[in-house]
Amino acid sequence: MRIVYFDCFSGISGDMALAALVDAGADQAYIERELQKIRIEPFGLSWKRVNKNGISALKMDVVLDPNKQPTRHRHYSDIVKLIRTSGFNERVQAYSLAIFEKIGIAEGKIHGIPVEKVHFHEVGAIDSIVDVIGVALALDSLQAEYICSSPVPLGSGMVRCDHGLYPVPAPATLEMMRGLPIAETDYSMEMTTPTGAGIVAAVVNGFSKGLPPMVVDTIGYGAGTRDLAKQPNVLRVVVGTTDSYIAKSTAMLQPALAHLHSHDHDHDHHHDHDHDHHHDHDHHHDHDHHHDHHHDHNHDHDHHDHNHDHDHEHDDDDESHDHPHKH
């Protein structure tokens, strides 16, 4: 059985998850090609290798045309329609819809509105859509059958947003992590974003404090934005195989794919893709997904604005994020 393990010792965000999955062997060409099916404003992906406290990791950012900044908001129902009409296979749709459903329900509960009325600030919505669908495509590429995670550190402290000072973890993040194991952290910062929490809540079968029984095939590291004083700000993804009875017996419980677990992977993968999405990528990572992209990217990531602009600035220490949903 194919197993994917999220080692969230420094938390998890959408961009970190996508980068780590690609670094662990998900087909980058397939992901980039499929992402171009999304009917949203033009975007690119920036990939580059960075060093985080001695660990070489892949950094991914979504790049938008600064001259074509969108202005309107996109509602949860709009995002659902986008996913359903973009031509993705059933498995990718199931992952993507499940993650956004977790986020939408949590945000709706926090704000006291129906999930259909939850809206995302347009810039943040594009980031979120690309991150979430990118992760879905990566899991599809890896043919993940059992997905496991470590307990997840959420962070602490306060963060400044449009409504004033908000506690960390963000209310929606904490809501999505109800019933799931949380790890303690010493950092006064946002370590897990709403997108990261949505990924964990929607796709993870089970949790393990250490690596579960498995034969390790590949390992990937996805970098966050900030540098931490005491540890690498990376998400580690471990991909392998397992004969674990627990994994086999709970694979059907994977929230996003309960109705799809026939293991009939409808992967339209061609690992020799020769494509050119004209992404000005700033991309120099050293693994089997070489796309010499050159992006100058300063776009904020995982930035959900559900009825409020998360222009968060942490008031604590220099470990704080310069972005609410990007660490």
Automatic annotation (TrEMBL):
Listed Basic and acidic residues bias regions: 261-285, 295-313
Coiled coil region boundaries: none
One Pfam family, short name: Ni_insertion
Keywords: Nickel
Stretches for region Disordered: 261-327
Domain of life: Bacteria
NCBIfam families from the UniProt entry: nickel pincer cofactor biosynthesis protein LarC (TIGR00299)
Name of the molecule in the record: Nickel pincer cofactor biosynthesis protein LarC
Species annotation: Paenibacillus ginsengarvi
Gene this chain is encoded by: larC
